[in-house]
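Input record, target 12 of the design panel.
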């Protein structure tokens, strides 16, 4: 019955192992990596962008109904990576929280507060025995009234943080080191450059030349603070620009 060093400690979510680890929470992170998708978020000077792969698992599926990009409020959008059903559950909860805030206070919730609320909920899932952590990670983008473009990430452990650029999923380690090198150069990231950096990062770490229908791109800009996803023709234009630059 014994399964080595972690025997018994991964049965229950609320029990720490002798090394001080919560195995079930670590397994939730593994579930995100094993989803097979990689998502990238980049914050520019006047925009914030999220990019993810679009994989259609079955030829019979209607591809227009498959998405990992979600609008939480008109001005806050996110990309979900990991278990699809868990992702939809977290998106629904985010929309409920945002709606309640608007009803109670009369103005739209800001991204940081929404992300903190979701992180608080995720943290409760790590300490109650009758719950399991959600096997998904959210990268959220918005234009903050005070701070301008913002990019937040919220994980199954209930940790959230603001980022200049981040990646999550199967190739997150490689993508993060790629982004670190790029961000270190302190490039002047206009809207187009931000989108192209995110696509280039995904293309580089996965060693793939993407077609427009294999990507999903979500953007918010200072000029157009409402979250929207780019059409295939707009993505194609960015892919052409990247190919010409290289």
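The sequence produced for target 12 reads:
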């Amino acid at each position: 019955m014994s399964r080595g060093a972690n025997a018994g400690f991964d049965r229950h979510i609320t029990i720490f192992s002798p090394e001080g680890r919560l195995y079930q929470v670590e397994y939730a992170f593994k579930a995100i990596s094993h989803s097979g998708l990689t998502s990238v978020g980049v914050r520019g000077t006047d925009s914030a962008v999220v990019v993810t792969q679009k994989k259609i698992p079955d030829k019979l599926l209607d591809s227009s109904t498959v998405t990992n990009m979600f609008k939480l409020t008109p001005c806050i959008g996110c990309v979900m990576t990991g278990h699809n059903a868990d992702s939809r559950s977290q998106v629904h909860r985010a929309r409920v929280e945002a709606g309640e805030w608007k009803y109670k206070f009369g103005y739209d919730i800001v991204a940081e507060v929404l992300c903190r609320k979701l992180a608080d909920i995720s943290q409760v899932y790590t300490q109650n025995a009758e719950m399991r952590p959600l096997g998904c990670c959210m990268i959220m983008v918005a234009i903050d009234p005070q701070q301008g473009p913002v990019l937040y990430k919220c994980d199954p452990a209930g940790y959230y943080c603001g980022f200049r650029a981040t990646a999550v999923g199967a190739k997150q380690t490689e993508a993060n080191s790629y982004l670190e090198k790029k961000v270190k150069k302190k490039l002047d990231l206009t809207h187009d450059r931000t989108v192209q950096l995110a696509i280039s990062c995904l293309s580089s770490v996965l060693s793939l030349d993407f077609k427009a229908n294999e990507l999903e791109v979500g953007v918010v800009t200072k000029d157009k603070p409402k979250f929207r996803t780019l059409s295939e023709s707009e993505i194609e234009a960015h892919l052409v620009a990247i190919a010409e630059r290289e």
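Strands lie at 38-43, 47-53, 69-73, 76-82, 136-144, 148-154, 160-162, 165-169, 215-221, 228-229.
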